[in-house]
Design a protein that fits this description.
Elements lengths: L39 H15 L23 E3 L6 E3 H9 L17 H13 L3 H13 L8 H13 L3 H13 L7 H14 L2 H13 L3 H13 L3 H12 L5 H30 L1
Antiparallel strand pairs: 1-2
Helix pairs in contact: 2-11, 4-5, 5-6, 6-7, 7-8, 8-9, 9-10, 9-11, 10-11
Length: about 280
Amino acid sequence: MGSSDAPKEGRNPDAWIDSDVENCGETRQELSPSERNQGCKEGACSLKRFDQDLFKEPPRRDDCPICLQQLPLNRTKWKLQACCGRMMCLGCSFELIKGSLRGKCPFCRASHTSSVAKVMEWTQTRVEAKDANVIDFLGNCYSMGLHGFPHDSRRAAKLWLRAGALGCAASYCNLGTAYARGEGVEKDALRARYYYELASIGGSVVARRNLGIAELQAGRACRAMKHFAISARAGCVYSMKRTRQGFLDGHATRVAYERTLTAHKEATKDMKRSEGRSQKALVS
């Protein structure tokens, strides 16, 4: 192994991919919607600062407050309690249904109900309390017409924007997808990427993967590999495959590739443990 493969103390874990983003000749040329009216010099400085935030290691996903294991990467395997806005993994949700708290929320002790009117009442209360997760949930309900809510893509986009501003990275990811597809908003690839970037900064692995795909399609392999490496370390299988291909193509050193692979295995091991509990609860 050559000296160039040795990790350097204090360097960003992704510095192994060609070079730092600002020095690799691949920079984000377009301005975000909030930057379009700024002067050229000020806008360029803003882009550089934004990139510094974009390629920082994102925050770790929350743990399930019941089993204390990291919540799964797939948010459909989370359980949102509409009564109080708390989250837990599906495995804990199913186990609690069969346990001593059968029919009651483990956090606020509210009784379970199948009444759509009651769920709407709880949801409205949490929305008024500016609960980002519940606002995101409400946006999903309007987007897909779930739980008695009418299908309204435009309203869903507004709710996702509000939830994103309150700190829900998944909402910004949903909003990016809405702009990419033109669902509820005018189709706008630049705004789609902008909201994917905000979601990535907040820790959305799906948004980070989507950015990697977009950068790769645009021919910016350096930026793409950085996105794939970060999302691979968070447990994204697709991104790990792309990172491996980047290593084979010469975009990565062996040391950094192995570090990313180790982190990926640790992340997926935690997720498999949590998802295994959910599956076991379903079939038991």
